Amino acid sequence: MNIQIVAKRYAGALFYDVKEKKEFPKIWEELSALAGLVKTSPEFANIVRNPIITNEEKKAVFSALKSDGKISGTLFNFLSLLIEKKRLFLLGEIDAEIKKLILKENGEMEAEAVFAVKPGEKAREELEEKLSSITGKKILLKESVDPRLIGGVKVRLGSILYDASIRGQLDRLKAELV
Fold first, then answer.
1. Domains of the chain
2. Does the model's pTM come out above 0.90?
């Protein structure tokens, strides 16, 4: 089964189980911290991803974190489930999926925009407004610059790519002519 689908299922299970509880922000903060630690600490990443390390050893690590007050009992139970099902390596993907669920719950959506040159504030606001009118959600825009676009912008909104760049137009024209 696709890793993204599995991560989405586990994220949904955790999210919908604890979203109404007062501790949800704390649980997500702890999960995000652990997911970040996997990226920044080779030792911790080894514990999470190495199949040679036994389930008991992995649980002992998280049990120690729970005893020190670093993670909640609810998160410890969730991590124990991931360990038992041999899905602990999905920690980063689960964190990303929970972030998407939180944005969806709040009526927000992330979009990535790549501009040919750094946009002015007005252009950025107009793009956010246009994307917001398309989706009906508040847009959280992440922007970057790529001079290879020559002019215009490329926007990724979920799984859809809108290419309004000169480079994209030239590539499409070339494909038609060849």
1. 3-103 (1.10.520.20), 109-177 (no CATH)
2. no
